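Troubleshooting: if your tokenizer reports a length mismatch, compare your output against this known-good record of 272 residues.
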Amino acid sequence: MQSGPMPEYTYNTDLDWQERALHYGDGLFETLLKQNQEIPLWHHHLERLSQGCKRLSITTPDPDWLANQVAEKSKAMDSCVIKIIVTRGHGGRGLKLPPAEQLSVLIYCYPWSEPDSLDLRVTICNTRLPINPNLAGIKHLNRLDYVLASLELQRQPDMEEGILCDSEGYLVEGIISNLFFVIESQVHTPSLEFAGVTGIMRKIVLAQFQSLGVPVNIGRFQAAKLDSASEVFFCNSVRGISPVIAIDERQLATGETTRTMMAAVNRNTDRV
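Known-good structure output:
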């Protein structure tokens, strides 16, 4: 049982040269879609942010305070993409940790408009994600592997997304999305126990498959497994479900399983 008064937390809301996010990537982020004055997945994002803070031993922002800050920052925009960054706070030179009751919370809002099409042409990236169970699953600020993959994708302007594997060649996810594929009516999605981000929309898609009585095979699959896939789709919390219509030179159809998920998930979460 805790004795004495609870510590008063200090919320830094300005970027400072001592910010540990700049020096070490010491923090987490969430990217949310606000649409027609609503953030339909707010509680899912709040839950993941809290879990990530616990994993990194960063103080979790007070949820009511955070909700008020997000509402204030985004009040002028009916629809936008909101990025919340939570870090361990400000520190001096070296790895000495700042007081636990100090943290930084940065909130940014970006214009959003409905995409012309959800269809994606994708490539399998040469960039590999490191195997790191310490950070697997959480949306931490160390994104350089994804930056390198984005640079690789930039050199192929006809491709809208990239498929990432880990250093052992196993499928993980997309650059900004989670991956699902169908082989002989069996749904597959890569395990995220060694690398990748446990996406909000991935969680919703898994729950939707469960409600339909459709088993999902979660495991470690080599990239060659996609050669046998009849359907492939990506998902994230901003775009919802996006069917893959081509992987490099191979064309794909948008099949029944993908269409079912698009009808259920995109509609229920106010996606296009």
